[in-house]
Amino acid sequence: MNIEQKENLVHDYLDGIISQQELEILQELLTHDPEARAVYREAIFLHSALQQHSQAVSSLATNVIPMERVVRRQKRKVLKFAAVAAVALLMVSLGVMSLFESKANGSELTIKSAPGTQFAVTHQPTDEKPEGNILLKGSKLVISQGTVELTFKSGVQSIIQAPATIALKDDDLLHMQEGSAWFNVPSGAEGFRVYSSDLNVIDLGTEFGVVVKPKGYDEVHCLQGKINAAAVRARKESADLSAGESRRVDSIGRLIEIPSHSKLFLSELPTALPHIHFSFDKEDQLIASNTLIGRPNVKVDTRPSSRLSAGVFGSALSLNGREHLMTNWEGILGDAPRTVTFWMKMPRSRNEEVTSIVAWGEQNDHTLNNKFTIHLDHSLERYPMLNISFGGFWYYSPGTVLDDNRWHHLAVVYEGKLDDKGLPITRLYLDGIDTQIKRSDRAPFTLTNRDPIRVATKDQTPLTLGANLSVDRNRLIRDDSFLEGKMDELFIIEGSLSKEEILHLKQTNFLE
């Protein structure tokens, strides 16, 4: 199918004249065809802009030709020019697809970052402060979310995924304290070295990856060519590795052979933050995309018998209040930043139970923050009150009413940081509007400046929709309260989105 045919399908859909067969074709294209998704994004921006213009014109006069008729006539003629201009303006203002690159003081080392990436560079104290985000000898790079690309003076390229902390010790020497990094060393740059507290890797002309875990065992994977890997601790074992060979360092300095996983590493910058997306458009393929690097394929282990029904974009998951959906993914753990967005439609409900919408982690001692849930508390007021809980600490939104049998878009953002009061920086957006949240007064402990909130989501109950986590360590969920309602287009993102990025996602259903 050529691009003109794709444009026609998209516009027929936006004009409300698409047939069921054509709609199915369009849904298939949007799932598998990047060009079709690009056409859709451009069209939705233009469609929205023209609708707003139409409303403005209609408010000025009543004896003019209806603007929607003009829009329909002109839309396809001006699409390429107007949509490209609108997209360009939006991308500049939001920074959704921007790549950052800087050079300074004649340095040939460059830093690029993928959309949504957050990083900070610090330098050793000198009389002259370097300008721009560059790495000099002794500089430290901390990546809190997203992905960064480094190009060294020697031509070595590296893709580093958050969370990561590295320091540039020399032009061909990198110290990794944490992170997952891919390296491509060109001919003539042999001898490039990467080291951590447990591992020393010397390149012999190759492509390799290194995983450094502060609370685990470091790994090295030879993807092409050859490298030398040496443990730093007591046994100090050393080995030359060829393509397809990998090692993990143990606590006494041995190199343990492990399976090689090239999919642990990115070799180019992605177009969005790592995320998982549930489209709920197909019974046999509820997960539309999974860009989580180094994770097993996410699948649904426990699926409700409830059928899919009409949603905001395609179909939606319909939960009947007696079942739930559970995956095999542990969720975003520790205090890593996260964004959860979805559409929800609830019937009027007045029970006395807590019902979770999205949940994962460990539900045990309430003084600990080992879980992450977005749930409804029916007992506080006469309407289901939205709660965002880390475990022993939670926020609630007293003015949010969801049980009105209408579709609402919700986005919850945890930035992975604490504010000046020691509280987790968390934001809630209802239908794209920044919505007030309050700390619960029923917290079972007293917050002090010496004892700030510690978010430490643990791996116990995997990502679950529509069911409450169980306090019993031998059970994953409670079986006495389930969610009744519909959910569509669930995104769980490894990173915090801005308000503008959330609006873009709400309007277009695309994170890129």
Whole-number count of domains: 3
User: What is the helical fraction, as a range of percent?
Assistant: 10-25%
What's the overall geometry? Answer: globular
Strand content: 35-45%
**What profile does the largest beta sheet have?**
12 strands, mixed
> What would you report as the Rg, rounded to the nearest angstrom?
25 Å
CATH architecture of the largest domain: Sandwich
The helix-and-strand class reads: alpha+beta
CATH topology of the largest domain: Jelly Rolls
Mean pLDDT: 81
Q: Please write the CATH class name of the largest domain.
A: Mainly Beta
Unreliable runs, pLDDT <50, ≥5 residues?
A: 49-107
The count of strands amounts to 31
Number of helices: 5
Q: Termini separation (Å)?
A: 23 Å
Q: How would you describe this structure to a colleague?
A:
This protein is α+β, with helices and mostly antiparallel strands. The protein has three domains: 3-94, no CATH class; 110-264, Jelly Rolls, CATH 2.60.120; 275-508, Jelly Rolls (Sandwich), CATH 2.60.120. It has helices at 3-15, 20-32, 34-60, 67-94, 499-508, and strands spanning 110-113, 118-122, 140-145, 147-151, 157-170, 173-184, 193-195, 199-212, 219-231, 238-242, 246-249, 255-258, 275-282, 285-290, 300-302, 309-310, 315-320, 325-327, 338-345, 354-361, 371-377, 385-389, 394-397, 407-418, 424-430, 433-435, 438-439, 461-465, 467-469, 477-482, 484-493. Strands 1, 2, 3, 4, 5, 6, 7, 8, 9, 10, 11 and 12 form a twelve-stranded mixed β-sheet that branches. Helix 2 (20-32) packs across helix 3 (34-60). The longest helix has 28 residues, at 67-94. It is globular.
